[in-house]
Amino acid sequence: MELLVCDYKVIQIDGDYAHLQRLDKPEEPYKLVARALLPPEIMEGSKLHYEMLQYELIS
Question: Are 48 and 4 in contact (CB under 8 A)?
Fold first, then answer.
C-alpha cells in the first residue's frame, strides 16, 4: 500500500474548514479539510505538504 504524498494550496478558508487544491492535479475537485488538522498559521494562498497523514506549511 502506497501512502499519498502531495502538495496543496489553500484556496479558501470557510469557518472551521479549508478548501485545498492539489498542485500536481489542479483539475481535481477541491479537498475539504477540517482546520483542526492543519497548521494554525495557514491563510488563503498558503502551500501545504501532505505526507504520512500530516499537513506541513511550506510557504
Answer: no
Q: For position 47, what pLDDT does the model report?
A: 98
Q: Do residues 18 and 38 make contact, with C-beta atoms less than 8 angstroms apart?
A: yes
Q: What is the C-alpha to C-alpha distance for residues 7 and 16, in angstroms, rounded to an integer?
A: 21
HEC assignment per residue over 2-38 = CCCCEEEEEEEEECCEEEEEECCCCCCCCEEEEHHHC
Q: How far apart are CA 13 and CA 32, in angstroms?
A: 10
For the chain, the average pLDDT equals 95
